[in-house]
Amino acid sequence: MKNTPLPDKILNHELFINQLWENSCNGIALIDKRGKIIAVNNTFCELVKLERSKLLQLPFTTIYHQDKRNYILQNFLMDLENNTLKTNYEYSQTLWNNEPICFEIKNLILSVPDKDKIVMSLFRDVTMQKKNESNLEKSEQHFRMLFNNASDLVFVNPISKENTFGFFSEISYAACQKLRYSKEELLNLSLYDIIPARHEEQIDLLIKNLQNDKRVLFKIEFMTKDRRKILVEISSHLFELNGEKTVISIARDITQHEHTEKRLRNSSEQLRSLASRLQTIREEERSMIAREIHDELGQLLTVLKIKTALLGKKLPVIGDDYLLKINNLISLIDQATGSVQKIAAKLRPGILDEIGLIAAIEWQAQEFQRNTGIRCNYTLPEESLLLDKPRATAIFRILQEALTNVARHAFAKQVSIYLKKENENLILEVTDNGTGIRKSQIDNPKSLGLLGIRERVLAFGGKVSINGVEGEGTNLRIDIPLENNKN
């Protein structure tokens, strides 16, 4: 081991030496060949929490726990004799007061004229530093465990000065499995290597958004090593790592989810088409039954009335009692005829097909007011609406259902009907001043009337809004696109 002699000029400057000694940020101890302390500075005393008087001429191992002192001293003397004394190392030990500590120790063997070997030991307390390093290491291990065991695809990319993604700097095990690459292969690739070329503009836009928002969520396709496409939803975060802009991304394979959603959408569309078709069939059946009742049964009742009246005239004088009975019979026939007309109108109001939706709504409002005693106001377009039959029927049936709900549940004294064309939509609003529908009633799956309204509207790609205020009333609003229909 190389000895380091002190220059004579410095040895002669005691003031300089003393200031250097006492003001050092390191604890310094001079130790003789027997392991005893011959000098220490203030910093050393503060480190070991002992006064100078309790250290001088005592083995340097006095600073350690008594159970370890002999062992440490013997090793020191052996290393010193064999010239194998460590010059720079970290040493974790327990102090004399049972306090754990970690020293960074530097040993220098000084050559002093006419003196034995002297060891100058510099002590620095690195306990907190080692603790932080240990915590950091545990944190990194924990992060790596989470990183590699995450079910989602996790990858890290630096961003170059040209604002492009660099090679993957880290990638999770799940990503390797999903993309069918080894980790070594992926670390030599970038995001551009695993996406179809048509998505490169999307990636450039992504980087711009990251610069502004620090976090983005987007969907994109990945290409596996065997050229399969998988759809992923990615959450990317921008941060700085060692002064370099870096992006950590968490990607979730939503290929199956998207397929399921697509099937669900298709299924819903098919169900709506079926429901719409069933509504059409039901309306056609209603129209047919209404015609049959009106034409066949109505005609039979008319014939029956005529024949009954003629029979009464042809019979000889039969007395007032029989004449009264014949007149009563004619009256019953008139009532039956009226019932037939009402039933036919409920099944399919002829006015809807003959004159149109606006006239049908006027008729329905008047019928509602006459039958329920609830005042019914309406505001309708002055000009006729040229609607296709399915839309006109749907709006009329929705109005009927809304008025039925008012009569049954609202306890209202007044209801208003509002119909207008706005842009390319037809809007119907029905508002009452009743008790007000509750949210639980709106969301109740057993509210078949409301479900029917929603289905009729959704069949045309429209919207339904139902709002109730307790004690003030309920508002139903529907918006149905007119599509290819002209006002």
Cα(first) to Cα(last) distance is 105 Å
Query: How many strand units?
Result: 16
CATH T-level fold name of the largest domain: Heat Shock Protein 90
Please give the count of helices: 15
State mean pLDDT (0 to 100 scale).
83
> So, CATH architecture of the largest domain?
2-Layer Sandwich
| Contiguous runs where pLDDT drops below 50 for at least 5 residues | none
How much is the radius of gyration in Å?
A: 48 Å
CATH superfamily of the largest domain: Histidine kinase-like ATPase, C-terminal domain
Structural class: alpha+beta
Taken as a percent bin, the fraction of beta residues is: 15-25%
The CATH class of the largest domain, by name, is: Alpha Beta
What's the helical proportion of residues? 40-55%
Shape by Cα distribution: rod-shaped
Largest sheet: 6 strands, mixed
What is the count of structural domains? 4
